[in-house]
Amino acid sequence: MLIYVANEKESKKISVNSTISLKGIVKAIFNDTVHVQIGGKIIPIPASDFILDKPSSNH
User: Fold this and answer.
1) CB 33 within 8 A of CB 46
2) Cβ-contact 13, 23 below 8 angstroms
3) How far is CA 39 from CA 2, 7, 43, 51, 59, in A?
4) Which residues are CB-neighbours of 2 under 8 A, at least 6 positions away?
5) Do residues 25 and 41 touch, judged by C-beta distance below 8 A?
6) How many CB atoms lie within 10 A of CB 34?
7) pLDDT of residue 15
8) How confident is the model at residue 35, as a pLDDT?
9) Do 28 and 36 contact (CB within 8 A), yes or no?
10) How confident is the model at residue 2 (pLDDT cuts 50, 70, 90)?
11) pLDDT at position 37, please?
C-alpha cells in the first residue's frame, strides 16, 4: 500500500518509519506533556520530543 503526501509539488512515497510533518494547535502543556490538536483529535506528546526554548536565568 502506498500513501502519498498531499499538497506537495511532487508526490513522495512514505512507508513505515518515514518521517512526516504535521501541523496542529497546542491546546495545553502539563508538566512534561504537550497536548496538540490535529484534526478532531487531541494527542498528548512528551515534551522531550520537542526542542523547547527554556527561559534563561541571565538578565
Assistant:
1) yes
2) no
3) 22, 16, 10, 23, 40
4) 13
5) no
6) 19
7) 87
8) 93
9) no
10) very low
11) 93
The three three-digit cell numbers of residue 32, written as one number: 512534561
For residue 49 the three cell numbers come to 520530543
Provide the 10 A C-beta neighbour count for residue 19: 5
Say which amino acid occupies 52: L
On whether the pTM is more than 0.90, the answer is no
- Which are the contacts of 25, defined by CB distance < 8 A and separation ≥ 6? 36, 37
pLDDT tens profile 5-58: 555 555 577 888 888 888 899 999 998 899 999 989 999 999 888 766 666 656
Contacts of 33 (CB under 8 A, 6+ apart): 44, 45, 46, 47
